[in-house]
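Record format v2
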Amino acid sequence: MMHEKEYKVDVGPKTRTLHVDYLARVEGEGAFFVRTKDDKVEEVQLKIFEPPRFFEAFLQGRQFSEAPDITSRICGICPVAYQMSAIRAMEDALEVEIPEYMQQLRRLLYCGEWIESHTLHVYMLHAPDFLGFPDIVQMAAKYPEIVQKGLRLKKAGNEIIKTLGGREVHPINAKVGGWYSLPLKRELEQLLPLLEIAQADAIETVRWVNSFTFPNFIKNYECVSLSHPSEYPITQGMITTSSLGTIPLSEFQTHFEEVHVSHSTALQAKMKQKGSYLTGPIARYNLNSQKLSPIVQKIRREIQFESICQNPFRSIIVRALEIVEACTEAIRLINLYDAEKLAPSVQVQSKAAVGYGATEAPRGLLYHKYTLDDTGNIKNATIIPPTSQNQKAIEEDLFEFVTNHMTLSDEELTYQCEQAIRNYDPCISCSTHFLRLERIYE
Amino acid sequence: MNNIALIGIGNTFRGDDGAGLKVAEDLMSTFDKKVDVFINKGDIFELLDIFQRYNSVFLVDACSGDDTMGSWKKINPLVDILLPDSKQSSTHALNINQTIALAKSLHQLPKRLILYAIKGKNFQMNTSLSPEVREVLFSLKETIIEDIHSCMKNI
């Protein structure tokens, strides 16, 4: 993937400009810009120029049952997250309760997505930074067995999604009220040998990424994620923040708002009265690490990784721990499954209502809100993806990082800024799903 | 499972980027089930998996370049230098050149790999195959059939 860089040092007052026109190894099209003067950072912009995609607009008038399949097209990497958040919001609106076995299958499907998405990011996008390679192809030339491990892991995640969801990309089996069809027990059990190898590979991945050298950068983030009384949050829970504690989903927009900035086609989110916040693996981990499975706790203690992570560069370790968690959880859920002869779904009746749903996409909290009319058509949709929510935090990280590393050369500083952006595994395609258009006639 | 795979790569929603898929779809029933035919819409992990499982792999993909639009070239990536190709279906993925390079690094290339690269004219969203590309698909398919039959005789 090609990108252009510009390093410019002006004469007169000491001004440095770092400008990367096209970020490499992130999903979607973005750039960044940093301007310093007299050894002070004056301006930082994460520029997203990917075209807006208007999903919230064209959901209007569609049936509630279509929202999971339409919104899953927002992203090819995290379609399950969109499906699940849409389903949760519709079931909230229509007061649908599903039995535990259907809920467990949703969690299993989501584990598949966590495994494949996190693995792709760790191995293909982020690890090359720490090892000094421009991409995975170069990394594979020196470390073929390590990359093979990543490919095995990704395949394990994809196989879960294919088996339970019907296909690997934009799975088609989940719906409002449950599932279109339930898998046979033996179909899921066939995944177990693959997942047991994946779990071992994931544990090795934790040890591997823990051996990297990390820049010294500590930040006390306002963390936002779901929390649940009995499980590490993936498919359900209440919104929890570092400072406000637990918030009902219906009050999300009371405390958080989206704003449009001129340098980005993606809306940015902020916490009212607080400003930027962080969602994603570090936020989930910091707020919920005690809920991780015993296997993950054991590997965490082995590598002496604290229960709170404040260095965004170490997010790769948290992602690796979450891959172990997802493999472990997938094995547990498959062993529990005994519902193939039961009903795949419950009845759902349309009514005029408002519903709220949130799940933990690999990149963080994914919030949906829908207003339905009495025929079940969508009158209004609000979708707030994690990458939008993290934009402000990314810019602030860059501001602080550059401030503390002014002695680095332009080339090195630019490289580390790009790495800092990749800490967040931004999915720019998700963040540009909506743009408010205001037309002024003169 | 057979020893030979034919893979059409591309995106039907992007004009001539659908050419590889069209060829694979047209040849799906040609080889009397002795060749496994795949439709690949940019999943490099599936490609890597297929490279590992088959002795002989025939790839069909559209590309951009300096050649006459609507022409096609047969390339042996195990020997030849690949055409420069910056076409990429997703910034989360690799293009075909990078995928083959990755497979080489991982010692995962099949014993025989042939790439038929179709020079496309138009890759705009929501468009269909250009007349120039449609015109050459017949001769391309004939060549692929001949090559695969020859491969089957040698196995």
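Residues 1-12, 432-442 of chain A have pLDDT under 50 and may be disordered.
The interface with chain B takes residues 1-2, 26-29, 76-77, 120, 124-125, 135-137, 140-141, 144, 147-148, 151, 154-155, 158, 168-169 of chain A (CB under 8 Å).
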